Inverse folding.
């Protein structure tokens, strides 16, 4: 989905597949119609200076995401990068 915008043809492929869960990277925007099909959590990526990028990552789920998604790692440097975005 590299830098897919709302009008990208890649979204039709995704809806044709109709997955229960989709984990997407480097998405620029998500079509509004997908919000009717999935519960979506979307977070903009940040650069090394802490500024938002033009793209982000998304989780799409049939049903509902009922808990906050907590990402942690056994590696401290990864946790530092994750906390940089909070």
């Amino acid at each position: 989905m590299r830098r897919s915008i709302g009008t990208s043809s890649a979204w039709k492929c995704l809806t044709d597949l109709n997955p229960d869960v989709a984990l997407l990277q480097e998405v620029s925007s998500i079509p509004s119609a997908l919000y009717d099909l999935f519960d979506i959590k979307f977070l903009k990526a940040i650069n090394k200076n802490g500024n938002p990028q033009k793209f982000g990552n998304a989780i799409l789920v049939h049903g509902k995401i009922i808990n906050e998604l907590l990402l942690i790692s056994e590696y401290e440097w990864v946790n530092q990068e994750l906390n940089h975005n909070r």
In short: Residues 37 and 62 are 7 Å apart (CA to CA). The radius of gyration is 14 Å. The chain has a mean pLDDT of 85. Residues 10-84 form one domain.
